Amino acid sequence: MEQMAKYRADLPQLKPGLFVSDGGLETTLIFHEGVDLPHFASFVLLDSEEGQARLRNYYERYLVIARRHGRGLILDSPTWRANRDWGAKLGYDAADLKRINQVAIALLEEIREAAETEKTPLVVAGVLGPRGDGYAAGRMSAEEAEDYHAPQIEAFAATAADMVAAYTLNYVEEAIGIARAAHALDMPCSISFTLETDGKLVGGRSLRDAVETVDRETGSAPAYYMVNCAHPTHFEQALSVDEPWMGRLFGAKANASTKSHAELDESVTLDSGDPLDLGRRYRKLRETYPGLRILGGCCGTDDRHVAAICEACV
User: Is 0.85 topped by the overall pTM?
Assistant: First the structure.
């Protein structure tokens, strides 16, 4: 039975004002806390009380930051890998994945019920990741992507999730399929692309072209777009002042490191970069592009980086 979603019909981050997002969940757990995440899958923690406690502790750090600055917070579920192909690698069948995706939202709903205030609204987002590797171009058609991602979105739709958030997408067909599947299930969705060091998607498509193509092919179904898993020195060259498509770009979750995806993929140590420098870069982005209102981090970032971003962008 579908549960009541608090903000599904009226997402507060679509209104003026800043929202906080978390940092790099998986890199924090692996490199800072020594947690074994097979295939970079944090959803496996949901299957134990200890794992759930660890996740609550993680989200609490960002709640503190959001409260301190009087900002809303996007609670992104730890389900980036909880889709069919990755689940199969970990022994999770379709029923297991439906269950674990819904457990993830139940955990975030518990956090919201205990911690939300008028000044700090908490938006619960069911996270989707790419079918393949976020750093390598995929090969699905839009129709195949819609069919592939629909079960996970359907699982979220039956919960209190306010929206679905797709991260680390690197080709438009997968984004189109996700947007269509979410629209068919009456779920608001955000689409976040990852860019290479040249500011383009891995296949050479520009961010502008990607956003405009997905909007054209879906009737502007996504609630908004974001950029994630790239350093500002990589993606700032893709942005433009006063171009209509920029009105669809609402946020960024940057990597801490300036390294390329290929370099990061081969690295066995964590490059945490400079939190203060990242904060200054976000401030510059906000000054130039005030429509960027959802601010967080991705690989290599943690609560130190997000705190620095919030301090710089007050």
Answer: yes
